[in-house]
Amino acid sequence: MKGLNRVFLIGYIGHDPDVRHSQSGSQVVKISVATPNVKKVGEEWVDSPDWHRVTAFSLEADYLARFAKKGSSVALECFLKQNRWTDKEGRFHNDVEIVIDRVLWLGTRPGSVAVSGDTGGDSAPIPDTAGPTAEARAEARADEAVPF
After folding, report:
1. What pLDDT does 22 receive?
2. Whole-model pTM?
3. CA 49, 103, 32, 139: dihedral to nearest 10 degrees?
């Protein structure tokens, strides 16, 4: 039997990208994505988004670093990557990372809406923003190498 390792997230970027570089010099970008979730508290339904930390490498990292903004609406196709290591004290660690394969820009967030939940930062209103323009997307993709 073959396996399947796919994660699909549709939501809003919670903060501008955290851009870093690996030891080899390649770009690594981390973002938080809020996915809508509604729960009932007493007699009232309350918005309570779930927050996901996701990581991008290579071309998707460059793409997010250039165009992602707090509040952008995105659909992400990802996979789970398991990281295991032993620290200097000999303790074993196990971590699962959500890694982005593809980004699809969905448009702007309607209005400026305050979000709640743990964003790893402040919970200020998310501004009305958009993804890259069609020209910018075409320019970013034109830089990619042809696979044949």
Report:
1. 85
2. 0.66
3. -130
The CA distance from 48 to 44, in Å, is 12
How far is it, in rounded angstroms, from Cα 73 to Cα 71?
6
**What b/e sequence results for 89-122 when a residue is b if at least 16 CB atoms lie within 10 Å of its CB, and e otherwise?**
eeeeeeeeebbbeebebeeebeeeeebeeebeee
Question: Reduced to 3 states, what is the DSSP secondary structure of residue 68?
Answer: coil
Q: How far apart are CA 144 and CA 54, in angstroms?
A: 22
Q: Which tokens go with 64?
A: 């997010």
Which two three-digit tokens encode residue 32?
């938080």
Q: Rounded to an integer, what distance in angstroms lies between the CA atom of residue 113 and that of residue 36?
A: 12
